[in-house]
Structure formats: structure tokens, C-alpha cells
TrEMBL record:
Protein name: D-lactate dehydrogenase (cytochrome)
Transmembrane regions: none
UniProt keyword Membrane present: no
InterPro entries per record: 4Fe4S_Fe-S-bd (IPR017896), 4Fe4S_Fe_S_CS (IPR017900), FAD-bd_oxidored_4_C (IPR004113), FAD-bd_PCMH (IPR016166), FAD-bd_PCMH-like_sf (IPR036318), FAD-bd_PCMH_sub1 (IPR016167), FAD-bd_PCMH_sub2 (IPR016169), FAD-linked_Oxase-like_C (IPR016164)
Family (UniProt): Belongs to the FAD-binding oxidoreductase/transferase type 4 family.
Length: 923
């Protein structure tokens, strides 16, 4: 064990010092095309822990790189030293009473901040495309912008204040007068030098004007030298130098933003032009107007997405050289929105277009347009050859040069053999992104990339005096070219700033500034073939906020990165060592297989599918034999499960429920339901026929300890109450959709179970005229699994459409907590469930910070740590005023009940309770 790791273990809890091979590799992976494996990963939950980590690294002579979400694209979040990972202790959010300011910890996800600000009609100014995954620390440290942010609403411009931890351990809160006073006393020399640098710049009119001109367009190359001309107080200069410093000057432990208005009314138009020149002529006309966003897409970008549904037909017939602008206008009310849309259309009347200019206000149509724009980058990534990486670069030009610069970039891409390359960007700011695929496996390919990047840099700097990095940060990728863009004088200013704040070079060396002219060609990330299910992964990290095992073991991105390395070693005949030994638990056992990662993935990868495939490979003959027996004898499996439940309750009476939970390692989830039973076939009667299928979980887990009726009893009562005549399939207790086996990787055995169940449901639903009566299943995962094979209803959908119109409800005055099951999220049924609960309760409360509950079918019993981790934000309670919660899957409800101490039941229970006035005798 190294001296550094021993030092870290003295100052951090053991679980926060990560040294195993698999997690060092996986946690060290970011969205860039660089790969460095950290010596150690140190998770910090407080400023004092961060200070101790930096001090320990400095004492050992090792560098520290600070990591938030790792969505950065330029290599600024990788290291072979200490990776200091920002923990959940920094996921803090304090909103001013009027919403005008928000104080944020660097661990907050940007999209979550905007969700909390929405009730004020406000948002943070920066709006990067990765806002659903990136964190505030990275947004500020990279001065990230986006499609609507421009240069007026980025972190630099909307900064109200910050709290920073310097390399020497000193803390400064620029919004706290006492902290500022102490800092002025302790660091007067540093502040005096900053003031002197600012005076030197202002005394040089040519340099000062060059800095101002460089920041009139988007620019994240190098440090924020505009702080030296925009401010005179060295505290203000220091604060604004921190923005865009990429963790090289200090650790931003808190950032306070001035928020900006989020206009509620929006309209979008996708306008086609015969040429880049015509599109850019339109951009110049729109630049001074009240437009929120203007996105340019060249013909190659349009071609990459032209087969997406919902797009105008003319996109497929566009000539080579054509282009499009995606224009959005926003307003506080409908009248102003219409005025702005009319104004834009009138301005474009003087420009040659392909087809009319038509604004859409339908959110679904607008969303389609924006999905197209956001889908251009992943479309290239999805089509790339296995083993290559997808690279996205961003540059900025004076907007008046945009047309010529775009054509020049197109020519460079073609000239260097990147025929798949596409160009799109934030046209109002002259900010272009170009996307291409690159093979780094041979020296010739690396040389091709090097020549291309040299040519791009010369074009941007020498011909247009533009920005080599507009919004993605400098990183390792552009560090060798900072002096090319800025010149020696300005670059020496940057080196002096780095020396002032980090004289020993501890913080993220090699990022922003480097003496190595080939630094951008070192440590290139391999993307070897691993499995066809995940080979398209671009390691962007968009999946991570939705994954219930993220920060417990691995996220989907990290699972893929780990499996890629194991596969690479296997292909090379090298031993996988500890990677292979630790992967089964970290990579497979703790994957909830919820599929939510696919909903955020730009290329639609469900990493759970990989986990299922790999679980199947390790089952062996015995595992498949047991799976085959379970598929053929599910009635016996159900009986054994009920027996186990009964024995558990007996043991609980002897030793106590809490003791049994501890003795079982958390597998016994008190209060556990009592054993259930298969409901008897309902008596024939009047009413519309419907087939009701209680899922196996509803049959195995019966009444609650408090005497609440079982789920099948409740659903049957509701169906009869609403005038339906329920049927049950024959031999119901032998039926299962196979989800329990599929999740274990027993795909063939699960398929046999599904086929048997489908046949039974068809027979039960036969209406005698060649059709089927409605089939209703009371568990969302089972409905989702069978929906492609048979027209089945998930209970919430059926209840909303077919029960509510027939029931008379008395709404509950207290709040009801809502958990949306993963299957329902994937199927798009969340709105329907929410409407159903809202019909029953005066107030519906979401569980903050809870997505997938991590139960994963029966995984919550076999790996209880996964369920506990996924529900950690509940802290043992429901939100104030909630006495109960609802979900749509029995095992999810068991985990939620055990965690919160309050009953979570199927939404059917709530609906039955609220419709009891229709009968004299309640259930």
C-alpha cells in the first residue's frame, strides 16, 4: 500500500478510498477520448475532506483532478494521480424566496436545479446539452453554455458569488464579508498580484481590447482573462478567474447564480435553405431579434437524422449543400409569442428558403424538432465502426464569417477523409460543432487526426481569429494550442495566474496549459469490441443520474467501460485478473436491470441487456437446469415461496422482526406481507367481461401485516364495482411471464414461460367471435414484458380509461406519495398514473431524488444494498403530510414500505378506498 493511500485512509472513511482495479478504471472514465487510470479514487463529502485529500496528495507529490459528473469532452476530468470525486454531500440547493438567486453545491445535476426552479418561472443561465447529467461543479469549472445561453447567461455572466478551496487549504466565500476580510488579511500578496496583473492589462490598450474582442464570441480556451478587464476588485477578479478554470486553480465548493427567466410559451420552426450562405444570411438578420435559439445544421447533419419520424417530407429531397435552421422563440404570454414568430417569419421572407417558414406551438411537434437537433451527435456515434471513437469538437467564429467558415470546415473534413463528418451549432454565437469518427489503433490514424487538428487550429486562428474552444473547455485536447490562439503575451498571463494559485502544480496539471506540443495525442482511449449490445456506447455518462446502482458499485457507462477492458485483455490473451474477479458483483449482481439507462442514452443502449446476457453465461448447466424446472413447475416455485414467507414470519415472532432483518443481511424486509394465495375463479354474473391476471408477485405476497386486503381481492372488487365481469386464466398459479428468469439471464427458459402464459391468456380472453376481451395485469413490469406479444392493459392505464368513468370517487384530503415504476417510465405511462392518483387525492407528492427503487424484481431480496442505496434519499420517512404511498409493482412497494415505515400499496388500493361510497360494505 502506498504512502498516499495510507494517508487518505487516515482522513477519509474506508468506503471513500477506492483502490480496486475495476472501479479505478471505471470511475476514471469520462466522456472524452482520453484514458488515464487514477492511482486512487477519493470520494469527498465535505470541504474539510476535500482539503485533507489535496493536502495528502501534495505531501505525496501526486496531482489531484476534481471530478463531478465526468461528462466533459476534452480530457479535463481524467488523471493517473488522485481522482477526487465530488460526493452527494455536495448536492445542495438553496433557492432565494423569490427564485432570483440559487446557491448550489457542485454535486447538483443541472437539470435537477432547473426542475426545482421551475415553480418560480426561473432557471440557471447555462444550458449545455448534457444538463440532464452534468453537475454544477463541471458547468462552472468549464463555463459551459448551450443552445440558448449565448455569452450573456453563462456562469461567468450570471455569477453572484462562490466559495472556493485553494490548493493551500484556504477557503474563501466571496458572499461572506467575514470570510473576505480574513482572506484579504491572509492572502494580501495574491490579491495584490491579481490587481497588478489587471492594471498591467488595462494599461496596454491593444491587449485589453484583444481580450474584450476574444470574449465577444464564445471562448473557453485558456483562463477567463476577461476578469482582468471587467473588474477592479481582486476578489471579483479571483471569483471570475475560477469560472472556466477546469479545476486547475481551486475547488469550487459552492456557486451562487443569478437565475434567469424561463418563458413558458415557446414556438419552434425548422426552416430549410438551399445553401449555407442563405442560412447564414438569415442568422445575421435574426441576431438582433428576440429569438431564444437558432441552430444551424448542414446537409450531412440533416442526412444523419432524416429518417426520424415526424420530420417534414422535404428534408429527404434536399440538394447537397443545403442547410437548415432550427429557430425557437419564447415569450411570457401567447400574444407576444405570436408577435415574435410573425416578426421572424417576415424577416426570413427576404431570404431564399426551401418551403415556407412555419412555427409550431404544439409541444410534441417542437419536441420532435429538438430531438432531431440533439440526435445528430449520437447518430454519428451509433453508425461508427466498432473500435472507433466519436469526436465532437467545438469552435467559434465571428458570426459575420459563419457561412465561409462552415464551408471551410466542410472542406477540411472531406480533405482529411472524414466523409461521415457533420456540422451543426449555435448559429447566433457563431459556435459550430463538428462530429467525426476516429480510429486511434494505428500510428497512421493518429497522424491523420493530428494533421486534421493542426489544420483546424490554423484555420480558426489564422483566418478568422476565432475560438478553438467555444464551450467544451480547453482540457488536454486544446492545451497545446492555447498559445497559438492567444499569443505569447496573453499566455504568459495565464501561466502567471496558474503559478499564483497552484505554485506546486498539484491541481490538474496538463489541463489548460502544457509544455508538451503533442499532449493531445497521448493517452488516447481504446474502445475495443466488447459486445454487440453495447459497442455503440460513446461513454457520455448521460445514463448515470437514472441508475440506482450509481455510486454504490457501477453505473451503466462504468459497467461498459469495465467489460470493454476485460474483453480487450481477453482478445489480447492477457489475464483480466482482479477485473474479472470483481466484475460479477459490481457489474452484474448490482444491476437492477430497470432499463432507465436506455431512456437517457443518446443511442438507446440498455445496459441491463448486457447484464442479463453475462448472467446467463455464468449460470452453467445447473443454473439452466434449475431455470428449466422452474419454468415447467412454477406452481411449485410459488408454493415454496409462500412457505418461505410463512417460515420467515414464524422466525420473526421468535426473534423479532428487526433482529430477523439483521440476521438475514437485510433480505427480510419488515414489515413483510403475509403469504398470499391464488384467488378462486369469480362466480359468473352480469357485466362486461374482462380477464384479470394477478401477477405472480401479487399471488405470492398476500395481505399486509396490518390486515389490508391482498391485491387480487382489491382488483376483483374494483372490477365488479365498476360493472365488469372478471375472468381468471385457467391454472393461474402455474403462470408467470418469465421476468424472474429473464433477469437472471435464463432467456430461453423465460421465453417458454412467456409463451405458456400468452397461450393461457388468449384462451381466457377468447370472446367467441375471433377476438379478445380486455386483459388486465396488475404489475407494470409484467405488462411491459407481454405487451409486444399480446394486447394487454397495465392496470393504471385500464383504470384511467375504463374504471374511472364508472366509479364515483371521494378524494382523500391528505397527500399521497407517488412512485412511478421503471416499466411505466419506459412505456410513457407516467402521466396516466399521475392523473389516476390525482383523481383520488387532493395532493400528489413525488419522492424527491428517487427514480428506480432498486428492487429489480427479486434483486432487492438477494442484494438488499441495491434497494437501500436507491432509496437513500428518503431517509426513513415520507414527505410531510403523506401517510401512504402508491406504486404499480408489488416488490417495489415492499421495499418502499420497509424503507419509509409507511404503507406503499398498489394504486388499486387507493382507487378502491376512494370509491367505497358506492357500496354499503367496504372491503
Amino acid at each position: 500500500m502506498s504512502r498516499l493511500i495510507r494517508a487518505l485512509r487516515r482522513v477519509l472513511p474506508a468506503g471513500q478510498v477506492i483502490t480496486d482495479d475495476l472501479r479505478r478504471l471505471a470511475y476514471g472514465t469520462d466522456a472524452s477520448f482520453y484514458r488515464l487510470v487514477p492511482e486512487v479514487v477519493a470520494v469527498v463529502e465535505s470541504e474539510s475532506e476535500a482539503r485533507d485529500v489535496i493536502a495528502a496528495a501534495a505531501a505525496a507529490g501526486r496531482p489531484v483532478t476534481i471530478r463531478a459528473a465526468g461528462t466533459s469532452l476534452s480530457g479535463q476530468a481524467v488523471t493517473d494521480g488522485v481522482l477526487m470525486l465530488i460526493g452527494e454531500g455536495f448536492a445542495t440547493c438553496e433557492i432565494a424566496p423569490d427564485g432570483g438567486r440559487v446557491r448550489l453545491g457542485p454535486g447538483m445535476v443541472g437539470g435537477e436545479v432547473n426542475a426545482r426552479l421551475a415553480r418560480f418561472g426561473r432557471k440557471i443561465g447555462p444550458d449545455p446539452a448534457s444538463i440532464g447529467a452534468c453537475k454544477i461543479g463541471g458547468i462552472a469549472a468549464n463555463n459551459a453554455s448551450g443552445m440558448c445561453c449565448g455569452t450573456a447567461q453563462n456562469s461567468y455572466r450570471t455569477l453572484a458569488g462562490l466559495r472556493v478551496l485553494l490548493a493551500d487549504g484556504t477557503r474563501l466565500d466571496t458572499l461572506d464579508p467575514a470570510s473576505v476580510a480574513l482572506f484579504r488579511a491572509s492572502h494580501g500578496g495574491l490579491l495584490a498580484e491579481l490587481a497588478r496583473l489587471a492594471e498591467t492589462v488595462r494599461a496596454d490598450p491593444a491587449l485589453a481590447e484583444r481580450i474584450r474582442r476574444k470574449f465577444r464570441i464564445k471562448n473557453t480556451t485558456g483562463y477567463s482573462l476577461n476578469a482582468l478587464v471587467d473588474f477592479t476588485d481582486p476578489i471579483d477578479i479571483l471569483a471570475h478567474l475560477m469560472i472556466g478554470s477546469e479545476g486547475t486553480l481551486g475547488f469550487l465548493s459552492s456557486i451562487t447564480y443569478h437565475t434567469v427567466a424561463e418563458d413558458p410559451f415557446k414556438a419552434s420552426a425548422l426552416v430549410f435553405f438551399p445553401s449555407i450562405a442563405a442560412a447564414c444570411q438569415a442568422v445575421l438578420l435574426l441576431k438582433p431579434e428576440a429569438v431564444a435559439a437558432v441552430e444551424l445544421l448542414d446537409r450531412a447533419a440533416l442526412r444523419s437524422v432524416e429518417d426520424k419520424p415526424g420530420l417534414p417530407a422535404e428534408i429527404r429531397g434536399l440538394a447537397d449543400g443545403a442547410a437548415a435552421l432550427l429557430i425557437e422563440v419564447r415569450a411570457p404570454d401567447r400574444e407576444q409569442l405570436e408577435q415574435r414568430a410573425v416578426r421572424v417569419a417576415a424577416l426570413l421572407g427576404g431570404v431564399e428558403t426551401v418551403g415556407p417558414v412555419a412555427f409550431a406551438t404544439d409541444p410534441a411537434v417542437c419536441e420532435t424538432f429538438w430531438k432531431v437537433r440533439k440526435g445528430t451527435f449520437p447518430s454519428v456515434g451509433a453508425m461508427r465502426r466498432t473500435g472507433t471513437t466519436v469526436i465532437i469538437e467545438d469552435v467559434a467564429f465571428p458570426v459575420e464569417s459563419l457561412a465561409e467558415a462552415t464551408l471551410d470546415l466542410q472542406a477540411l473534413l472531406v480533405g482529411h477523409g472524414y466523409h461521415e463528418g457533420i456540422i451543426f451549432g449555435h448559429a447566433l454565437e457563431g459556435n459550430l460543432h463538428f462530429v467525426f469518427t476516429q480510429d486511434f489503433s494505428t500510428p497512421a490514424e493518429i497522424e491523420r487526426y493530428a494533421g486534421f487538428m493542426d489544420a483546424v487550429c490554423r484555420l480558426v486562428v489564422d483566418k478568422y481569429d476565432g475560438s478553438l474552444k467555444a464551450e467544451h473547455g480547453t482540457g488536454r485536447n486544446m492545451a497545446p494550442f492555447v498559445e497559438l490562439e492567444w499569443g505569447r503575451q496573453a499566455t504568459e498571463l495565464m501561466r502567471r495566474i496558474k503559478q499564483l494559485f497552484d505554485p506546486h502544480g498539484v491541481l490538474n496539471p496538463g489541463v489548460i496549459l502544457t509544455d508538451d506540443p503533442h499532449a493531445h495525442l497521448h493517452h488516447l482511449k481504446p474502445l475495443p469490441p466488447a459486445d454487440d449490445l453495447v459497442d455503440r456506447c460513446i461513454e457520455c455518462g448521460f445514463c448515470e443520474p437514472l441508475c440506482p446502482s450509481h455510486r454504490l458499485t457501477l453505473s451503466p457507462r462504468q459497467r461498459i467501460a469495465g467489460w470493454r477492458e476485460i474483453s480487450r485483455r481477453d482478445a489480447a490473451g492477457a489475464p483480466a485478473g482482479m477485473l474479472a474477479r470483481t466484475y460479477p458483483y459490481f457489474g452484474l449482481d448490482t444491476c437492477a436491470d430497470c432499463g432507465l439507462c436506455a431512456t437517457a442514452c443518446p443511442v438507446g443502449i440498455d445496459t441491463g441487456a448486457l447484464a442479463r446476457r453475462l448472467r446467463g453465461r455464468r449460470q452453467g448447466k445447473l443454473g439452466h437446469a434449475l431455470g428449466g424446472w422452474a419454468a415447467a413447475h412454477f406452481g411449485g416455485v410459488a408454493a415454496l415461496s409462500r412457505l418461505g414467507l410463512g417460515l420467515g414470519h414464524g422466525a420473526g415472532r421468535l426473534v423479532g422482526q428487526s433482529a430477523l432483518s439483521r440476521l438475514s443481511g437485510g433480505r427480510w424486509r419488515a414489515p413483510m406481507p403475509r403469504p398470499g394465495r391464488c384467488p378462486a375463479a369469480p362466480a359468473e354474473g352480469a357485466g362486461d367481461p374482462v380477464v384479470y391476471v394477478p401477477a405472480c408477485g401479487s399471488r405470492i405476497f398476500g395481505p399486509s401485516e396490518d390486515g389490508t386486503a391482498s391485491q387480487p381481492e382489491v382488483v376483483l372488487t374494483l372490477l365488479r364495482r365498476a360493472g365488469y365481469r372478471p375472468r381468471l386464466p385457467e391454472r393461474l398459479d402455474t403462470l408467470c411471464c418469465g421476468q424472474m428468469l429473464a433477469s437472471k439471464g435464463l432467456a430461453a427458459e423465460a421465453e417458454r414461460m412467456a409463451e405458456t402464459m400468452v397461450a393461457a391468456l388468449r384462451a381466457a380472453a377468447d370472446d367467441g367471435r375471433g377476438g379478445l376481451v380486455a386483459i388486465v395485469i396488475d404489475a407494470s413490469p409484467c405488462a411491459a414484458r407481454l405487451r409486444d406479444r399480446l394486447p394487454v392493459w397495465d392496470f393504471p392505464d385500464f383504470a384511467l380509461d375504463a374504471l374511472l368513468p364508472r366509479l364515483r370517487l371521494t378524494r382523500k384530503p391528505e397527500a399521497v406519495a407517488l412512485h412511478v415504476n421503471c416499466s411505466l417510465r419506459r412505456s410513457g405511462g407516467e402521466a396516466g398514473l399521475r392523473a389516476l392518483v390525482a383523481a383520488c387525492a387532493e395532493r400528489v407528492v413525488d419522492l424527491a431524488g428517487v427514480g428506480c427503487c432498486g428492487f429489480g424484481g427479486d434483486r432487492g431480496f438477494s442484494v438488499p444494498a441495491l434497494n437501500a442505496h436507491a432509496l437513500r434519499t428518503l431517509d426513513g420517512t415520507l414527505p410531510a403530510g403523506c401517510g401512504q404511498g402508491v406504486s404499480t409493482n408489488r416488490t417495489c412497494e415492499i421495499g418502499l414500505t420497509a424503507t419509509t415505515g409507511q404503507p406503499f400499496r398498489s394504486v388499486a388500493h387507493l382507487l378502491e378506498e376512494c370509491s367505497r361510497d358506492m357500496e354499503e360494505r367496504p372491503l
